[in-house]
Structures are given as C-alpha cells and as structure tokens.
Amino acid sequence: MSRREQEHQQHVRVAVVGSGFGGLGAAVRLRREGITDFVVLERADSVGGTWRDNSYPGCACDVPSHLYSFSFAPNPDWPRTFSGQRHIRAYLEHVVDVFGLRPHLRLGHDVQKMTWDKDELRWTIETSEGDYTADVVVSATGPLSDPKIPEIPGLDSFPGEVFHTARWGDGRELRGKRVAMIGTGASAIQIVPRIQPEAARLTLFQRTPPWVLPKRDRRITEAERGLHRLLPFTASVRRGALWALRELQVSAFTKRPGRLGPVEAMARAHLAKSVKDPALRAALTPSYRIGCKRILLSSDYYPAVVRPNVEIVASGLAEVRGSTLIAADGTETEADVIIFGTGFRITDTPIAERVVGADGITLAESWKDGMRALRGATAAGFPNWMTIIGPNTALGNSSMILMIESQLNYLADYLRQLNTLGGRTALAARPAAVEAWNREVQQRMRRTVWNTGGCASWYLDASGRNTTTWPGTTAEFRRVTRRVDLAEYDVLRARATATATATAASVEETV
C-alpha cells in the first residue's frame, strides 16, 4: 500500500464491527472507559443485529425481557415478560441515543477484509465505503448474522418464492398459498402459529422434533412498570431473581443431565395435552434427551400443528422438482412458497474468512479444525483482535447479555493493559494459552447434555466438537474474564518504538 493510500485512511483507536447487542455494548463500554476515538462499522442501514434482520411473524425472545437487556441500561417499560422483536429493536435504538453512540456509527459499511500489519502493529480494514486503520478490532458480528440454506438439488427450479426466516422482509403474502416450512427450530415454532390460519396448506419438514415447554408469557401491567420507574431497585431485584433461577439450573445441563428428567416430563405432558392423535404425537416426540438441543418455549405451536391444513413430514427436504418437494423418506408435497428455518452459519462464521492475521492466513484457515479462542475472546496469531460472543460462550438456558457484559469487562481491561504498556503496542494470545484454555473447556464439555444427549445440534461443528456453548455458570465466566492475564500474551512493540528504546538505553549507558 502506498503512503498516499495510507494518508487517506481514517485511523481510530478501536474499530467495532457489528451493531447488535455485542457491538453496541462494546461502544457503550468504550465511552465509559473514556475512549471516544472509535467507530462502529455496520453493513446494514440501521442498528439492531439479529433483531433488525429477523422480522418474521411472531418473532420474539425466549429469555425474559428484564434479563435480556443491559444491566447498565435497564428498561422499566418492557410490555411483556417475553418481549417481541419490535420492542427489542426499539430498546437498542434507545441505547444508541441515551449513550450518544450515533456519531460513532458508520452504517452501510460492509467490512470486506481486515489485515494485520505486523510492522505498524495495526489493522487495515477495507469496507464498502472506504478504508480504516485501527489499533484494536472488536468483532461483534454475532453467530446469528448469516443465514444458512442447505444445498438442495433442484431448488433453482422452484417457480415460487424461496427465502430464509431471517430475510422475511415486508410484503410477504401467504394467504391461500401452499407453504412449506423447512425446519422446526426456534424460528419455526414462532412462525407456524402465525401463518397457519392464512395458508391453504402448511407442510412442515421436520428432521428432528424439538422439545417444547409452555411459554409463560403475559402482559406486564402498568402498575408493575410504574413501580419499576419509581423504584428502579425493584427491576434489579426482578432481574436478579431471573438470573439466580437460571444459575441453579446450570449443573443439570453441564454436569448431571439426569436431573433434567422432571423438565422432560413437563414437556411430554405439554405435548400429550395438546396433541391427542397418537401417530402425530409420536412424530412430535424427540428421541434425544431434553436440553441436548435448545429447549423451545411455545404455548401455541402444538395447537397450530394439529389443525387440518397442517401436515408434518418427519424427514428433511431432499430434492425439488419444479413445484414438487421430495423429502428424504420419499414423501412428495406441492408448494407455492418455501421458507427455510435452517439456522445460521455459526461454527463456520463468514467473518472469519475476512480476517487475515500475523502469519498471512485467515481466521477461517486458523480455525479449520474448530473454533478456539482464549477466554472466548482472542485467537492465536491475531494480535489486538477480540471477538464478542466468541467460541464456547453461548448458553443453553440463560441470557447472552450476561456473557456479553463479561466479555466487555475483558475488553476494558485489555485496553487498560495496552495503555499501561504504552507506545505502539499489541497483545498476541500465546498459542499454548489458547490450547490450554480450549483443552480445559473441551474436557468439561464431555459431561454436558449437549455432548451426551444423543442429538446433532448447531452447537457442534462438522467434526462433532462443541465449539459453541460455555460449560459453566455465567458467574464463573464473569470471574475468568474479569482481568487480562499478561502471562497468556506476548507483548509486541512496533519496530520504531523498539529501536528508539534501544537507542535511549545506549545513550544512557554512554553517559
């Protein structure tokens, strides 16, 4: 790169990629740490991350509202115990305004490549709207940002609409149409009850049935909201109770899966109460231990699937021939619309293909045998680069906001350490430290329900390793990410700085 090109790049102390909960949380933390020299690079035209992209009918969170929000930005006005997409997105816009983040936003900036300059000790960032350099990069693109649509033979020949749940958009008209829903995961069980009354025929292609518990959702009364506004500590108490209950559940998921038996009994009772047909009930009953896949919450999914215009195909979609959909078991179905609820690229995140580290290889190449990062944040060979919601930080029963805030603590201390070291400095995670951390996590993972429950889930990568979830409590994760241990890092200094230091030392000796 020429000097002229370098001069036309904007340099910042920190570049944050993504404007969902992770990216906006990082931006707030930077300002609270006194750092204002940063930008938030966002490929879309507004903030919100997954809560912007997912606008399908019925889209809502399966974590209680008062726990699915920042501790530093409580919202006393949540309308429901489990809030919908519209209100969560509005909450994030509110966070942007309250904490003065708009001057830092760079909307419509799709990050195309990030390259580590080992001479300058900084990142060069190429975006669709211009280039930047940054001392530190915080990757907060999130695991639910890039939809995954399986390669289905003949899909291109389908004459009707084909789209993923995360690309629903406006103006989708399903009334009177034959709709095929591919997948029966968290998005599908929210969508099905909403579109079932409109569709002429709704066919669900189900490879594996989910465990479903009733969703105890209700409107939060004005009296409750007024109390939280008048006495903010009451909202904190509410949040604390929700957190504590879920912390008590962790050992059943991570150490003693047998304790999930009563929860499975509740799910079976919910299914039996809602579905009277023995054959259909059998098709909707999972064969794996509850908790192995994410437990879903819905009180209207089962009532919807028993309606006369709904059919369950207990098999995945294998082929498309024109408007005819053929399942793996040979079942044929005619459809006018195909909706994919097939999840996201989680263990092979696309952003990793765009990050080029110190050795000239991409993060995707470094992670070809599985994602791994020190304390879920930093990767060997990628100095001054940190990810929010990184490897083995996801949860099976609680709020990801808790994990995000823990990682923000780690980010804050990381930046303090760089300031203390002074000069043009970088921290590079030592390979041995990354491997030791990953080895311990994988050792603990062996006992978890996610590894022993007898299912294939999005928690596992292509080789069957769980590189996604955290095998402990959120309190433990907060403890292990409270401070940066410099013994786990190599300290890098720019050549000019190192030369100047050596010269100064030589002069001092001479004198």
TrEMBL record:
GO molecular function: oxidoreductase activity, acting on paired donors, with incorporation or reduction of molecular oxygen, NAD(P)H as one donor, and incorporation of one atom of oxygen
Cross-referenced InterPro entries: FAD-bind_Monooxygenase_sf, FAD/NAD-bd_sf
Short name of one Pfam family: Pyr_redox_3
Cofactor: FAD
Keywords: FAD, Flavoprotein, Monooxygenase, NADP, Oxidoreductase
Function: Catalyzes a Baeyer-Villiger oxidation reaction, i.e. the insertion of an oxygen atom into a carbon-carbon bond adjacent to a carbonyl, which converts ketones to esters or lactones using NADPH and/or NADH as an electron donor. Thus, can convert bicyclo[3.2.0]hept-2-en-6-one into the oxidative lactone products 2-oxabicyclo[3.3.0]oct-6-en-3-one and 3-oxabicyclo[3.3.0]oct-6-en-2-one. Is also able to catalyze the sulfoxidation of methyl phenyl sulfide (thioanisole).
Family stated for the protein in its record: Belongs to the FAD-binding monooxygenase family.
Name of the protein in question: Baeyer-Villiger monooxygenase
Organism of provenance: Streptomyces inusitatus
Lineage of source species: Bacteria, Bacillati, Actinomycetota, Actinomycetes, Kitasatosporales
